[in-house]
Amino acid sequence: METEKKVSRGEKRRNELLEIATDTIIELGYANTSMDEIVRRARASKTTVYRHFKNKEAMLAEIVSNLSEGPVLSIKPLDSHADGGSLQELEETLFVFGKAVLTLIYDDRTLGLWRMLIGEGSRAQHITKSFFQLGPKRASSSIAQQLQLANELGIISVEHAEKAASIFMGMLREDTHLALLLGVQSAPSEEEISSHVRQCVRDFMKAHRD
Predict the structure, then answer these.
(1) Distance CA 122, CA 144 (A)
(2) 3-class SS string, 75-107
(3) What are 161-208's pLDDT values in tens digits?
């Protein structure tokens, strides 16, 4: 029987600070959010906050990194032995990953961060670059590793794994993500997400099978 991982008091407080920082940044914008405001909303001392995070940028980096954990950790590595891995195994890996990606990017708080960063991108390009590398790029690169392995095992045929992963991510997001960012569409249900991801996996596999 698996035992639940105990969260230390310090880790719990760190997570609470990140939650507060996320809500504050979404509400006020990155540029208008100060460490002092986060300290005030957290009802903590400056010493406590700065013990966990050296600055606002470090907080945002961890927020984005934590968000991308879901899709990355959802990936079940393929069996790398010469006779390992299978078509069904890869399909299930892509399906679970795809669902994790869409569940994340359709979440209201994630959408709030996207909107905030798009709005402030021209003034803080180092922040948006960090967001891209720690978020979307990290997830895409993680699944690209499995696509490369699947290619080596002869499960599928991909010439450029990174490009193939990027295409798959685009298939998942389609126009729905943009519509949600613009607030002109409501988020799909879990059933609708599952159906869409299954179709994306079928189309992707069909395009990359010999």
Answers:
(1) 29
(2) CCCCCCCCCCCCHHHHHHHHHHHHHHHHHHHCC
(3) 999 999 999 999 999 999 999 999 999 999 999 999 999 999 999 999
Q: For residue 206, give both structure tokens.
A: 């069909």
Residues ≥6 apart with Cβ < 8 Å to 142: 71, 72, 75
0.90 surpassed by pTM: no
128 exposure class (CB count in 10 Å sphere: 0-12, 13-18, 19+): middle
Q: Which amino acid is at 83?
A: D
| Burial bucket for residue 37 (CB in 10 Å: 0-12, 13-18, 19+) | middle
Do 71 and 100 touch, CB atoms closer than 8 A? yes
